[in-house]
Amino acid sequence: MPLVRYRKVVILGYRTVGKTSLAHQFVESEFLEGYDPTVENTYSKIVTLGKDEFHLHLVDTAGQDEYSILPYSFIIGVHGYVLVYSVTSLHRLPVVLVGNKADLSPDREVHEVQGKKLAESWGATFMESSARENQLTQDVFIKVIHEIARVENFYEQESRCYLM
C-alpha cells in the first residue's frame, strides 16, 4: 500500500503571468484561452511517485494589487511555493532576496556570494541583514517598495494608449 502524503503548494506571481493556466493545465490537462483575473482558486490532484501517493492541494493566488496581502491560508500548512513569471517580460515580479541573521557569521552555512548568485539568477535584488542588530532592516523594505514601483511603472507605460 502506498504511503499517502498531503502537500499544500501556493502558486505566486505577478498578474497575467499564467499562474491559473499553469495550474489548470496540470490538473485538467487543458489550456484556458481567455483571461479572467483570479481572486483565489484551489485545485486538487493526486500524483503517484514511485510507491508514494501525494494529494496536492494547489492554491492559485491573485496577481492583482488589491489582493496582494497573503492571507493565513497561503502561509499556514504550506509545504512549498511555485513562483511564476512570464518569459515574455523581462520586468517580472519584484523580488528582494534577503539573507537574514548576518550577525551570526560564525554559524554561516550560506555565503554571501551564494546569495548574490541566486538573486542574480532570479533577476532579484540581494541584501544581507540582521534583524537583531537592525542592520539594513529599513533598507530591505524600502528596496522592495522601489522594486514594486519600477515594475508597476513599466507595466503602466507598456499599456498606455496613444492617439494620433
The structure class reads alpha/beta
Strand order of the largest sheet: 2-3-1-4
User: How many whole angstroms does the radius of gyration measure?
Assistant: 19 Å
Number of helices: 3
Strand content: 25-35%
How would you characterize the largest beta sheet? 4 strands, mixed
| Element-by-element helix/strand order | EHEEEEHEH
Low-confidence stretches: none
Give the fraction of residues assigned to helices.
25-40%
The beta-strand count equals 6
Average of per-residue pLDDT values: 81
N-to-C CA distance: 69 Å
Shape: globular
Describe it:
This protein is of the alpha/beta class and 164 residues long. Helix content is 26%, strand content 27%. It has three helices and six strands; from the N terminus they run βαββββαβα. The protein has helices at residues 19-28, 112-122, 137-158, and strands spanning 3-13, 40-49, 52-61, 80-84, 96-99, 125-128. Strands 2-3-1-4 form a four-stranded mixed sheet. Strands 5-6 form a two-stranded parallel ribbon. Strand 5, helix 2 and strand 6 form a beta-alpha-beta unit. It is globular. It starts with a strand and ends in a 6-residue tail after the last helix.
SSE diagram, text form:
Elements lengths: L2 E11 L5 H10 L11 E10 L2 E10 L18 E5 L11 E4 L12 H11 L2 E4 L8 H22 L6
Parallel strand pairs: 1-3, 1-4, 5-6
Antiparallel strand pairs: 2-3
